[in-house]
Write a structure and sequence with these properties.
The structure holds two protein chains of two kinds. Chain A has two helices and six strands; from the N terminus they run ββαβββαβ. By secondary structure, chain A is mostly beta strands. Chain A has a six-stranded antiparallel beta sheet with strand order 1-6-2-3-4-5. Helix content of chain B is about 60%, strand content about 10%. Chain B has a seven-stranded mixed beta sheet, sandwiched between helices. Chain B has a two-stranded antiparallel sheet with strand order 7-9. Chain B has a two-stranded antiparallel ribbon with strand order 10-11. Chain B is elongated. The chains are: A mainly beta, B alpha/beta. At the A-B interface, α1, β3 and β5 of A face α3, α7, α8, α13 and β12 of B.
Chain lengths: ~80, ~650
């Protein structure tokens, strides 16, 4: 089942399946979000947005509207 | 040789820059844009090279303003800052992603030094990096290791610069920029590039991970209750320093300049030159330097927080709250700092990489009630607001003061919303950011930041402030010839001859100011300010307080000849209370006082702020727009308040 990155629950590791081309897709890719990478939501800001993710030992923060551009599947 | 310093954000790039150039650095802007450009010299065996620090970016494809400059310079061989070589700083602890931008530069054919920085952290994380393999893959790059935070690697980098190899390299990956114009093509190329980098197996994770300290701290620092509590406490400490402790060096600077100007006045023969220097120039310079303690203190704390990694957590927890106003979490520090003083606040807006959001932050920041408004508020409140208690406990004067602060904040945010709709921006903002590991701040880097910010303020904004203050001084100290006649007439009047020497002095100052050019201008514009409930005397005080808001109090004291001394506030309040129009009604009625209070909440009565906005936006366009819209809001709301209350 394919979901987007903004909707995964905390501490759940998922795998990126696709980042469809959009205005922000080149940026997401160059920050290391590429197909096949494992990513985990590790904590959320108050009000649930933005969300901090761990990818490759790195912590990055993303607004929900941005995380929506990343398609993932539960590993 | 011209060398560009490039790399991702949070790779310790500025530590490398500081390590290589030390104090030999200049800060300015890249031509035509307001992106900070730091430049410094590196001495090597082959000569002195110029090192230019570029903003941290993740790739050559630009999105935000500071990324655009990287793309513009690197793709344009005609650009004045086009480099002969590159020093590329990579975070060794996160190497694969960091190598992406490096491969793009390598493929573009630049001679390049690859610095594997934060080597110690890579080791702590249990990462094994195969540098030989890396070298084999990029034969023309000079690869060195460094840990710039503890100044390791300087000599290796300098040596690498001298042995840079030029020549045609075999591209790492297909890189035809003409074909990489669309989002889709860029995404695909980046994706494939990263994939190839990972396939190489340069980094091996030995799985002896150090305990994840960041994560546990983050649970507290970004907590929905503790997170805000801790941030409030941090702010409280910073404000304590800016408000209370900064006043010690500020008063010292003030008094030194007063002494200096009387010393010069005694030293030089009496005349225009002596007056110009002792009353115009020296107080003007003093008026610049007096801001230095606040700027230094604020940037000391900001760069401490930034170096430690905490600032990005603040941005993280404040982001959602600021979003409805067209701002992001990074606007919080500039706006809150403006409660102390808009000048360091506006200067700190540089951290906002999105140009539109930065501009909005700069434009609305002066609405926040700064400390220079306090003397004006205090005087006017004690003048027109009765000292009564509401519900037995709430002091009405206190409530009004609180209301004025609140009004400033509300208008700052409301204006931000409107500006968000009015100002066009090319590309949508991008808010994905790294939350770097927590680190112990390096005082050397903090100190350099403070030094640079102070230098920028004194030399860039300072010139404008000195020029305007000399102009204002001249307008207030000189007047048409009739002034001298009127002065002689005053000296013959009964109330003058009967007065003691101090009172005579006060009467003379009052006459000289009200008949100066500024005085005449105040009278001339009385019809304009009449609907706000002001007479020409208030007009003069308004005009002269364009230098700085607190000057309003001093000007009124001079006009009403009670001596320009803050201890005389009580005398001034009494004098103002007794001031009547010919028909017997009070000049300083509730309506006029209220109207003035509102005027000072909104009006851009601060030339130093304008000078800083000019510096930070690189044109006179934005400070003038700001002056205009703040003036219009101030005028209209003061008008409404006066009409409602009278």
């Amino acid at each position: 089942m394919s979901v987007t990155l903004d909707s995964i629950s905390l501490n759940q590791q998922v795998q990126i399946t696709a980042i469809p081309a959009s205005a922000i897709s080149p940026k997401l890719t160059e920050m290391g979000l590429t197909k096949g990478q494992k990513i985990t939501a590790i904590f959320k800001a108050p009000f649930g947005d933005p969300i901090a993710y761990e990818i490759n030992g790195n912590v990055i923060s993303m607004r929900k509207e941005e995380a929506m551009h990343v398609e993932v599947q539960v590993a | 040789m011209k060398i560009a310093l490039l790399g991702n954000p949070n790779t310790g790039k500025s530590s490398i820059f500081n390590m290589l150039t030390g104090l030999r650095q200049q800060v300015g802007n890249f031509p035509g844009v307001t992106v900070e450009k730091k430049q410094g010299d590196i001495k090597t065996k082959t000569g002195i090279h110029q090192l230019i620090d570029f903003p941290g970016t993740y790739s050559i494809f630009a999105r935000a303003l500071d990324e655009q400059i990287v793309e513009d310079v690197l793709l344009n061989i005609q650009h004045t800052d086009y480099p002969d070589a590159i020093i590329y700083v990579a975070d060794a602890a996160n190497l694969e992603r960091n190598l992406l931008f490096f491969t793009q530069l390598y493929d573009s054919g630049f001679p390049i030094v690859l610095v594997l920085n934060m080597w110690d952290r890579a080791q702590q994380k249990g990462l094994k990096i195969d540098t030989e393999l890396l070298q084999k893959q990029f034969p023309l790059a000079n690869i060195v290791r460094a840990t710039a935070r503890v100044s390791i690697g300087k000599s290796r980098i300098i040596q690498a610069i001298d042995t840079l190899q030029k020549g045609k390299n075999t591209p790492f990956f297909d890189f035809n920029l003409d074909e990489l114009q669309t989002d889709h093509a860029q995404t695909e190329n980046t994706n494939a590039r990263l994939e190839k980098l990972r396939q190489l197996g340069i980094v091996q994770d030995l799985q002896i991970k150090a305990p994840n300290r960041s994560n546990r701290l983050d649970q507290i620092l970004t907590h929905r209750i503790y997170g805000y509590l801790i941030f409030s406490a941090v702010l409280l400490i910073i404000f304590q320093f800016i408000f209370s402790f900064a006043s010690i060096p500020m008063d010292f600077i003030d008094s030194q300049f007063v002494q200096l100007s009387s010393w010069i006045a005694n030293l030089l023969p009496e005349g225009v030159l002596s007056k110009l220097i002792s009353q115009g120039l020296i107080p003007g310079i003093g008026g610049v330097l007096v801001f230095v303690p606040q700027i230094a203190i604020l940037f000391f704390f900001i760069s401490l927080l930034e170096e430690s990694g905490y600032l990005s957590r603040v941005v993280f927890i404040m982001d959602r709250l600021m979003r409805p106003f067209g701002l992001n979490g990074k606007s919080v520090v500039p706006l809150l700092s403006s409660v102390a003083c808009a000048i360091p606040g506006i200067m700190s807006a540089r951290t906002i990489s999105d140009w539109k959001e930065r501009l909005i932050t700069i434009l609305v920041a002066p609405f926040m009630s700064c400390s220079a408004r306090i003397p004006v508020y205090t005087l006017l409140i004690s003048l027109v607001i009765p000292k009564t208690y509401i519900a037995g406990v709430l002091n009405l004067q206190g409530i009004v003061l609180f209301g004025l602060y609140l009004l400033g904040i509300v208008f700052a945010l409301a204006t931000a919303v409107i500006l968000k709709l009015l100002i066009k921006s090319g590309k949508p903002g991008f808010h994905v950011m790294e939350l770097p590991d927590y680190k112990t701040p390096r005082l050397y880097n903090v100190g350099l930041t403070v030094y640079e910010k102070v230098k920028i303020f004194i030399f860039d904004a300072g010139k404008i402030i000195v020029a305007i203050s000399i102009l204002l001084w001249a307008l207030a100290s000189y007047g048409p010839n009739s002034r001298e006649n009127n002065l002689s007439k005053l000296r013959q009047k009964a109330n003058y001859t009967a007065a003691n020497q101090a009172q005579q002095q006060e009467l003379e100052s009052s006459l000289l100011l009200s008949q100066s050019y500024i005085g005449h201008f105040g009278k001339w514009m009385e019809p304009v300010i009449k609907p706000l409930g002001y007479d020409w005397k208030i007009g003069i005080a308004l005009l002269s307080s364009f230098a700085a808001r607190e000057v309003f109090v001093g000007s009124l004291a001079t006009i009403y000849s009670v001596g320009n001394d803050t201890d005389n506030n009580k005398r001034l309040v009494q004098k103002l209370k007794d001031e009547k129009y010919e028909d017997g009604s009070s000049v300083y009625s509730l309506a006029t006082g209220g109207s003035l209070l509102i005027f000072y909440v909104f009006a851009m009565q601060c030339m130093a702020t304008l000078a800083v906005v000019k510096r930070e936006t690189n044109s006179w366009k934005w400070p003038l727009i700001q002056l205009a819209f703040m003036g219009i809001i101030a005028y209209l709301s003061a008008f409404i308040v006066y009409q409602l209350l009278s």
